[in-house]
Amino acid sequence: MEATRGWKNLGVVETIYEDENEHSTTTTTTTTPSLSPTLSSPPATPAPLHSRVAAWSRAMGRETDVVIHVRGSCFHLHKDPLTSRSDYLKRQLTEASEITLSPPLNITAETFTLVSEFCYGIDVVVSPFNVAALRTAAELLEMAAKAGADDVGLIQVTETYFSRAVAANRDYASIVMRSCWPLLPEAETKASLVSRCIESLSLMVHGDGVMSCLDGVKTVCPEDLHVIAEAMYLQSSGSHDLLYRIVDLYLKEYSGEITEDQKTRICNFIDCTNLSPHLLMHAVQNPRMPLRFIVQAMFIEQLNTRRAVISAADRRHTRKHQPTNEAVTLGAMLQHDAARRDVAQLTAAMEDTSARMQSLEKQLNGMREHLNGCENRALDSGRSASFRFSSENKVERDQIGSVSSASFRVIPGRGEMGGGFSCSPADESFEWNVRPAEKSSFGRRLVSGLKRALRVSKNSQSDHARGKEMGIE
Q1: CB under 8 Å to 297, separation ≥6 — which residues?
Q2: Other CB atoms within 10 Å distance of the CB of residue 11
Q3: Which regions span the lipid bilayer (predicted)?
């Protein structure tokens, strides 16, 4: 009691942790990470940080020398305990005595309180309710064990708890999963908590039980789901059924906006060759999936159907040509009929898949034609706009520049050239210069041409009169 009163008289208790809500003063100490006694509520609040800070100040004879701001809360702490446990804080506090832990560091004031207690040597109680936050904070603050040191780091403490408790307990895994959603994407990119929880649940629970534990996935943003899908793709070496069901649940229940490109990038991590037959058929008929993924699923489904048909035909051919001395039993006949029905069903499924692919191709062609039509109409409208003239710019008859205003004259003997063709731009007249020597020949040719025309006309008239006399109309 006297030691407690002495710490209160130091005058630093009120400045250690400033927040709107006061923490309870219950002291809890443990030597190893322990499980929470119940799952209905978080564990009891650990020992108050200000008591340990006051004791450290009294033992070392030094007051707090650093200030750390976290989500509106202010922590007055000592530099040495923090820098000895966290490489990140060591770098930040090298030249500054006051820092702020802000995003992308996804750390709350409550979590940093536990981290600070760990730095001061307090045994932190790890539970399913705080292991995700502590594990993520330990990674962000780089709190690994030091080489050659006896003390373990917070990363090792939380990882040990996760491996021993969460990975083997369905209820704990569900609680950790729910606590990971607000910690994304750091909870996955730094510690792979979400993908490992999903893997643990898939091993312990089958069917719809796993999906009931993953109901919170619909609250994450598309970018975070992309991170989860990528991690599951890299960790999975077998079936992709669970990944497909998670993506389908997200596309069905997500209330926000998601683009077609985001859907495609997420679905790229689903390998259709690793889907079970019933989910592959579901993917072919799923309108929520992007078109590219549906076409890929249809292609894989058609290949599987083709292989099944060929395999069934080969087995039938082998049985047909295999010599046997025994009579055909009823079981063999039933098995043969069942095989024939399977082949018929597979053939029908393949035909249905082909029809769907043709329908999709027609839709794609229609979309292309529609886009081309829009482009052509846009080009035509641009051309029509460029060729419009105002009414006052039109050329009227008998104006300068019209055909009727131009004159054509034959002028003999102009210029040194014997004859030629010339244009006067002033009155738009044309002149044809003819040499005197050619003038008489030109006249003679003109007269002879007129004579031939008259002769032909007379001959035609005489022929017409002769025809009338002979009775030919």
Answers
A1: 272, 275, 280, 283, 284, 289
A2: 9
A3: none
φ and ψ at residue 257, rounded to 5 degrees: -95, 135
Token code pair at residue 307: 């292989």
Q: What is the largest CA-CA distance in the chain?
A: 160
**Helix 277-284 and helix 291-321: axis angle, to 10°?**
140
Contact assessment for residue 181 and residue 188, using Cβ atoms and an 8 Å cutoff: no
Euclidean distance between CA atoms 41 and 129, whole angstroms: 8
Instruction: Give the residue carrying structure tokens 């991690």.
Output: 231
Q: Which residues, in sequence order, are CB contacts of 275 under 8 Å at separation 6+?
A: 239, 240, 241, 244, 283, 297, 300
- Of 29-38, 86-95, 232-241, 392-401, the range with the highest mean pLDDT is 86-95
Query: Domain map of the chain by residue range?
Result: 1-164, 181-270, 272-319+341-371, 407-469
- Do residues 132 and 183 make contact, with C-beta atoms less than 8 angstroms apart? yes
Q: What is the pLDDT of residues 20-50, one digit of tens each?
A: 343 433 333 333 444 443 444 444 434 578 8
Is-contact 404 397, C-beta < 8 A?
Answer: yes
Question: What does residue 407 show for φ and ψ, rounded to 5 degrees?
Answer: -120, 155
Long-range contacts of residues 243-246, Cβ cutoff 8 Å, at least 24 apart: 243/269, 243/270, 244/270, 244/275, 244/279, 244/283, 245/211, 245/279, 246/198, 246/211, 246/214, 246/217
The model's pLDDT over 58-117, given as tens digits with 9 standing for 90+, comes to 888 888 889 999 988 999 999 999 999 999 999 999 988 999 998 778 899 999 999 999
Burial degree of 257 (CB within 10 A; 0-12, 13-18, 19+):
exposed
d(CA 219, CA 228): 13
Residue pair 367/316 in contact (Cβ under 8 Å)? The answer is no
Check: CB of residue 157 under 8 Å from CB of residue 86. no
Full-model pTM: 0.59
By DSSP bridging, strand 66-70 and strand 98-101 are parallel
The fourth-level CATH superfamily of domain 1-164 is Potassium Channel Kv1.1; Chain A (3.30.710.10)
| Amino acid occupying residue 8 | K
Residue whose pair of structure tokens reads 């060729």 in the numeric block: 387
